[in-house]
Amino acid sequence: SDGSIRLHQMTSEYPLMQWNGSTKGQPIIALQWALTRPAVFFALDASSNIYIWDLLENDLLPVAKQTMPSERVVTMTLLGEPEKANGLLGIVLAKESGQIDIQYVKKKWALP
C-alpha cells in the first residue's frame, strides 16, 4: 500500500531485497515477473504508472517508467511464450472503462 516492493526467497520470512518508496508512495496494484526474461518484473501503481525493473541492469531503481495518461488502468498482466526465444512480451492493461490495451515490450527487456 505504500509502494514498497520486497523480493523473498521461499525458505525465509526475511526479504532478499527491499525497495522502499519505489512508486513515490503510490500503492502497487499489480506486479508480475516477465515470462521471457527472469530478471525483469513490472509493477503498476494506483496512478497508472508502469515501472520496469531489470535486476541485471540496475538492482536499486526501475530502468524505465511509463505513464498511461488517457485513463486509469485498474490491472495488468503479461503475455508471452517463455519456451520460444523470439523475445515477444506484451503487457495487457485493463482500463477503468473496460477497454483492454495490449502493448509490446522492447526486445531488451523481453529477450531471454
TrEMBL record:
<dbReference type="GO" id="GO:0005929">
    <property type="term" value="C:cilium"/>
</dbReference>
<dbReference type="GO" id="GO:0005868">
    <property type="term" value="C:cytoplasmic dynein complex"/>
</dbReference>
<dbReference type="GO" id="GO:0045503">
    <property type="term" value="F:dynein light chain binding"/>
</dbReference>
<dbReference type="GO" id="GO:0045504">
    <property type="term" value="F:dynein heavy chain binding"/>
</dbReference>
<dbReference type="InterPro" id="IPR036322">
    <property type="entry name" value="WD40_repeat_dom_sf"/>
</dbReference>
<dbReference type="InterPro" id="IPR042505">
    <property type="entry name" value="DYNC2I1"/>
</dbReference>
<dbReference type="GO" id="GO:0042073">
    <property type="term" value="P:intraciliary transport"/>
</dbReference>
<protein>
    <submittedName>
        <fullName>WDR60 protein</fullName>
    </submittedName>
</protein>
